[in-house]
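Quick start: read one record
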Amino acid sequence: MHEIWFRAVVFAGLGLGAGLISGLFGIGGGIVRIPVFMFLLPLFGVEHPVVMHVAIGTSVALVIPTAIIATRKQYRLGNLDWGFYRTWAIGILLGVVIGMVLIPYLSTEVLKGIFAGFLIAVGCYMGFAKPEMVIARQPPAGILRVVLGTLVGAFAALTGTGGGAIAGPTLKAFGVPLRKAIATASATGLVVGAVATIAMIIQGWSVPGRPSATLGYVDLIVFCAMLPTTLIGAPLGVRMSNALPQNVLRVIYTILLFVIAAYVISKLVTG
């Protein structure tokens, strides 16, 4: 019982930090959660072969409540285009399914490599891409929209994130207005979180090496400890971001991504 309470306190603190960073930089907490899970979960008895699987499963479960809150806010503000989102969501769904089909066949090392590559790609975009850089002047339509959604959904599933860090820049590069891109990126987490969580519960149901009190690959103690503190931390982070220049936030965020990527790569090399 003492170990359970200790684990809850530790991850509650992590939830507060993840929420602060999420609100500060306007990103999903998965970018912060996954590397910290990689470090902490083995200390609480999660065996190496399933560390990334439990990290991803728990992270995508935490995407759901934050995505619901963000999507409701965007809808009330009138930023979410449901006509655009319906087709986009089909692609996201296909991508998440593809990612979930692949995960059981991927080792912890491969998943770490995918996550590190994801961080480097986002860091390069945030740090070096020009704000006015676009691939297309008109928003994607038809099959292109579905294909882009599929790619975003697959990477979101394989990295344990809500997809917002990929969806927002992708949509903006393809000519989607900024507010619409942010709203669609927020709603992307609804599909990613729901589908990926169900899949991770089913896939990990009888797998050995998981911690106590889990549903498949979702650690319930970590989920319950982090959820309230994440929701507390996010608004505080937003207030902090309003007090800092956007250029400064962009530089800090880029450095943070590369530091986390370096940590993940070091864990990949050293095991």
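The mean pLDDT is 86.
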